[in-house]
Design a protein that fits this description.
121 residues, 7-stranded mixed beta sheet, 11 strands, globular
Length: 121
């Protein structure tokens, strides 16, 4: 069973930065690991993804150039460095694990509980 635990969310002013972490345990195959975000009443939005070998990096259009995804296989963690944050980035951020390189939320089998990011103007 794969377990994911996000951390690093919080309140930040517009223009600031945050770094999210996702500890992944129980992964035993080649996987694709991602960050999504969601606000009330909206569907989950793809933010960024990275393959188990560090390849296959993708970003959602709204975060390109501002967010960076990375991984540390020794720590079994993935990270999301978020710079130049905007109020529109306010959301609950989730990490997830699946087997396909995809941006569809329905393709991911395992999800964390989420961490709240709030950007004030």
């Amino acid at each position: 069973q794969v377990h994911l635990l996000e951390s690093g969310g919080g309140l930040v002013q517009a223009g600031g930065s945050l770094r999210l972490s996702c500890a992944v345990s129980g992964r035993n195959s080649e996987t694709y690991e991602v960050w999504f975000r969601q606000t009330p009443g909206k569907e989950r939005e793809f933010v960024a993804g990275i393959a188990w070998n560090g390849r296959g990096i993708m970003y959602g259009d709204s975060v390109k150039g501002r967010f960076t995804i990375s991984r540390d296989n020794n720590m079994q963690s993935i990270f999301l460095q978020m710079n130049s944050l905007e109020p529109e980035d306010t959301a609950t951020y989730y990490c997830a694990v699946g087997k396909s390189v995809t941006t569809r939320a329905s393709d991911f089998d395992y999800w964390g509980q989420g961490t709240q990011v709030t950007v004030s103007s």
